[in-house]
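User: Can you model how 2-acetamido-2-deoxy-beta-D-glucopyranose sits in this protein?
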Amino acid sequence: MLRTLPLIALAAYASAQTLPSISETCTNTLKSIALNADVAACLNPVALISLISGNSSTAITPAVDNWLTGLCAAPACSNATITSVVSNVTAGCSTELSTEGVSAENNAQISALIQQYYPTVRSIACLKEGSSFCVTKELEAFETAVGQTLSLDTIAALILNPPTSLSSNVTCTNCVKEAYNIIKKDIPSAASLVDESSITEECGASFVDGSTPSGITQSAVSTTQGATGSSGGNGALSLSSGAFVTFSSVVSSALFIALA
Ligand SMILES: *[C@@H]1O[C@H](CO)[C@@H](O)[C@H](O)[C@H]1NC(C)=O
Ligand SMILES: *[C@@H]1O[C@H](CO)[C@@H](O)[C@H](O)[C@H]1NC(C)=O
Ligand SMILES: *[C@@H]1O[C@H](CO)[C@@H](O)[C@H](O)[C@H]1NC(C)=O
Ligand SMILES: *[C@@H]1O[C@H](CO)[C@@H](O)[C@H](O)[C@H]1NC(C)=O
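Assistant: Here's the modeled complex, given as structure tokens:
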């Protein structure tokens, strides 16, 4: 699992760049969401514009680092902001989503899922080792391992011709260990799918001992925007994971196109 995760992330990013035929209505919805004050205040979307407006050889890692610097210093999105984003996307991108069986009827479930997993994703994204973001360090280690700077061009080439294995310099780092600790604590059901003996074989027994490695810190600001009380989810998590993945990929695709 540890070997494939970075490639899955890169493949998702690259497919978001190439996915065709997003309607103008959807694009405009995404644009307005990126410019929405609440969204701008918690997700720092503007910092990604350099990446999106660049060309296919623009380096990705520095843009991601810059984006995280703003994101982690900003308060977390409120559940109300998440709900508002989801309902506007399902309305504005209904054509794109309906072909995959996702409709406004799924709003509550999609919002609840994002509300549930967003804090975990945010805390992993904002881990630091020393003064550097773990995500940045991992991207740089990956670049060293494959001998290439990540850009759309090099990612496309890597997807066609993926490295057969990744150095433990990429997979068994203190950063990845702490990310695993967070997932295990927040989403025990996901962690229970992982065969720890294979991790131990690759990274050693201490990798799964649950302790936070020294030098690893959480940089995310602990406040949540506009804490105006609960807009809590309904816990009805019956949406198929396929629909959720569809929703996420349409949103990320459209976001890239919208901001371009
Ligand atoms: C969603 O749409 C409503 C109505 O147009 C707007 O008031 C609100 O700001 C939008 N929310 C986001 C997050 O863009
Ligand atoms: C991509 O943009 C950079 C500047 O950011 C420029 O130096 C380079 O020549 C461009 N490459 C292509 C293939 O257009
Ligand atoms: C792993 O990192 C160490 C120290 O930075 C370096 O000496 C070694 O060459 C790296 N190994 C691989 C396979 O990249
Ligand atoms: C947001 O909703 C989730 C579940 O839907 C809940 O666990 C969490 O406490 C809520 N967060 C806030 C800040 O209200």
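A couple of observations from the model: The chain has a mean pLDDT of 83. Residues 2-259 form one domain.
User: Helpful, thanks.
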